[in-house]
């Protein structure tokens, strides 16, 4: 834990050169291999960090896994069931390879759409069918979820709780309480460096900024 008892969740997306067409705006979350390794070394030295990778890119396996293993680190991988086996994305064998090295597999849903305002059939597809597909790929239960595009609302969180997810990860850029069911994360963005991330995450936020970020989280939960 950090000095004030918080946990820092750090989230990566793609690393290196994408091997598929990116979604609009997605390139902001792709980082080069060297910045990725430098940032991984930086956060590995922090007192309480949990690392995750979203979207199930092939770079999870080709760059992320060896870098984690080299440093004796583990991470949670939030995979998109609908992209399993597609060019540039993990397939079932890749998911099992991550598991074999002690990584956790979570769900990021089926099709990388917002989980807000879904009709019942879409809820089933995104929260139930995608999880079953990932469970089959991983060969072990999938109980973690990360909200695509960082979007969520109260109805969604109720559905995730009813379905028995044990931790749900967002992208709200603030420290987390270690035991909390809802876990905010800091996503690493293109152009981030160890110093920029340290300045944003570890510098003690002003009272104003803390209150504002907490208010963002409350507003989303009540929406
Ligand atoms: Zn995503």
Automatic annotation (TrEMBL):
Pfam families, per the entry: Polysacc_deac_1
Compartments, record wording: Secreted
GO molecular function, one term: hydrolase activity, acting on carbon-nitrogen (but not peptide) bonds
InterPro entries for the chain: Glyco_hydro/deAcase_b/a-brl (IPR011330), NODB_dom (IPR002509), Polysacch_Deacetylase (IPR051398)
GO annotation, cellular component aspect: extracellular region
Principal location listed in the UniProt entry: secreted
Domain NodB homology residue range list: 47-223
Keyword terms, alphabetized: Signal
Keyword Iron-sulfur set for record: no
Keyword field contains Signal: yes
GO biological process: carbohydrate metabolic process
Protein name: Polysaccharide deacetylase family protein
Gene source species: Micromonospora costi
């Amino acid at each position: 834990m950090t000095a004030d008892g918080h946990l820092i969740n750090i989230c990566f997306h793609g690393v290196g050169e994408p091997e598929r067409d990116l979604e609009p705006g997605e390139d902001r979350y792709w980082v080069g291999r060297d910045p990725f390794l430098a940032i991984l070394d930086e956060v590995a030295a922090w007192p309480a960090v949990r690392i995750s990778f979203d979207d199930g890119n092939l770079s999870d396996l080709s760059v992320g896994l060896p870098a984690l293993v080299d440093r004796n680190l583990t991470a949670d991988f939030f995979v998109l069931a609908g992209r399993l086996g597609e060019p540039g994305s993990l397939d079932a064998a890749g998911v099992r390879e991550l598991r074999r090295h002690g990584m956790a597999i979570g769900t990021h849903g089926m099709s990388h759409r917002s989980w807000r305002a879904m009709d019942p059939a879409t809820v089933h597809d995104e929260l139930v069918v995608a999880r079953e597909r990932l469970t089959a790929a991983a060969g072990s239960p999938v109980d973690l979820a990360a909200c695509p595009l960082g979007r969520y609302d109260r109805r969604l969180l109720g559905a995730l709780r009813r379905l028995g997810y044990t931790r749900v990860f967002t992208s709200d850029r603030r420290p987390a309480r270690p035991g909390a069911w809802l876990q905010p994360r800091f996503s690493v963005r293109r152009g981030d460096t160890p110093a920029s991330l340290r300045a944003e995450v570890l510098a003690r936020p002003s009272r104003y900024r803390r209150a504002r970020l907490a208010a963002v989280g409350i507003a989303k939960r009540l929406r």
